[in-house]
Design brief:
- 40% of the residues lie in helices and 14% in strands.
- The protein has 351 residues and is of the alpha/beta class.
- Strands 1-2-3-4-5-6-9-10 form an eight-stranded parallel β-barrel, surrounded by seven helices. The protein has a two-stranded antiparallel ribbon with strand order 7-8.
- Strand 4 (100-104), helix 4 (115-128) and strand 5 form a beta-alpha-beta unit.
- It is globular and about 50 Å long.
- It starts with a strand and ends in a 6-residue tail after the last helix.
Length: 351
């Protein structure tokens, strides 16, 4: 699976009584689908995945997949404390035609997560997952920073295709890129312009309203609805290696220049266009424009996502036309002063 470009880490909306607000999730995903984003991550850290039960997780994945445009790459956060629990959610994501799963290191028995245990966990999940696996390194939330040499070992697994590194450490990303440069390359299906082909694109069928009735059937008094022929999607193939994506908007341009294939960003949930502009300028080799666009989002991204956290990002979504709402307890809402600060930071970054 090709995972390239900018993907938004989507928040999970809640009613005031903390039930999942599925209609707002549908609306947000539909709006993201009209953007230039490459795809969406559901139920990562930004999606408050650890605060949802398994039944809620399945419902969020189902609703998001139904609302997303077929061409958007969908990644599901499925990490649980056991291999069994993680694989069961990966199977649910496959049922809803997600394209890959994001898997974090188990945290509760952190003192027992030796390199051997971590290797066993990720390899066991990858062996049994019906979808390709992205490793998830987020040391500010998980008390474990996956060693680069461990990532290099895991990159040899045929079903582990990349990593989202949310450490914010550029030298670490550079080290990961170097350590995984020799990983086996994979052949992936892409469009004629080398963009990802998703499972939902391949599964798409003509709408029933396109059926037609022949003149002969009408003359004979028999009405038979016949579907028009399905036009196959034109595809080609592309070779990709181990795909490294940053989770930090503040180092987006530097990570791309180092060789990262893209980014999965919480800040893209409230400012997808601003994040996408950095990537597009870099792709066009306009490094001055890319640097200007990067400078525009670095400070606001660090303050809103890195410091004010989920509640801050959700208010930023509210301010920029998406539904954010409150975070699920015990996370606290931002103060009035913090709300005003967020709105000031986003004054020049509207959608």
């Amino acid at each position: 699976m090709l995972i390239e470009g900018i993907l938004a880490a989507v928040p999970t909306p809640f009613y005031p009584d903390e039930r999942v607000y599925f209609r707002k999730l549908e609306a947000n995903v539909a709006r993201y689908s009209r953007s230039l984003l490459s795809g969406l991550l559901l139920l990562g850290s930004t999606g408050e995945a650890v605060a949802l039960g398994d039944a809620e997780t399945r419902d969020v994945l189902r609703v998001a997949a139904e609302a997303a445009a077929p061409e958007k790459v969908l990644i599901a956060g499925v990490g649980r404390e056991s291999v069994k629990g993680t694989v069961e959610l990966a199977e649910a994501a496959a049922q809803y035609r997600f394209d890959a799963v994001l898997v974090r290191t188990p945290t509760y028995y952190a003192s027992q997560m030796s390199p051997t245990a971590v290797l066993h966990y990720f390899r066991s999940v990858a062996d049994r997952s019906p979808l390709p696996v992205l490793l998830y390194n987020i040391p500010r939330c998980v008390p474990y920073d996956i060693p680069v040499e461990l990532i290099a070992e895991l990159a040899a697994h045929p079903n582990i295709i990349g990593i989202k590194d949310s450490s914010g450490n550029l030298s670490r990303i550079t080290g990961t890129l170097e350590a995984t440069r020799g990983a086996s390359r994979r052949t992936v299906t892409v469009t004629p312009i080398f963009e990802a082909v998703t499972g939902r694109m391949l599964a798409a069928r003509p709408e029933a309203g396109n059926n037609f009735v022949s003149a002969g059937d009408l003359a004979g008094g028999t009405a038979v609805a016949t579907a028009p022929p399905v036009t196959p999607i034109k595809t080609r193939t592309r070779e990709v290696g181990f795909q490294v994506l940053t989770g930090s908007a503040s180092i987006l341009l530097e990570a791309l220049q180092a060789g990262a294939s893209g980014a999965i960003l919480g800040f893209a949930a409230c400012a997808p266009q601003a994040c996408q502009e950095v990537y597009l300028a870099w792709k066009d080799h306009d490094l001055k424009l890319a640097a200007d666009k990067q400078a525009r989002i670095a400070g606001p991204g660090q303050r809103i996502v890195g410091q004010l956290g989920i509640a801050g990002l959700k208010h930023a979504c509210d301010f920029n036309g998406y539904y954010g709402g409150r975070a699920r307890s015990p996370l606290l809402a931002v103060s009035a002063l913090e709300r005003a600060e967020i709105e000031g930071l986003l004054a020049g970054i509207r959608n």
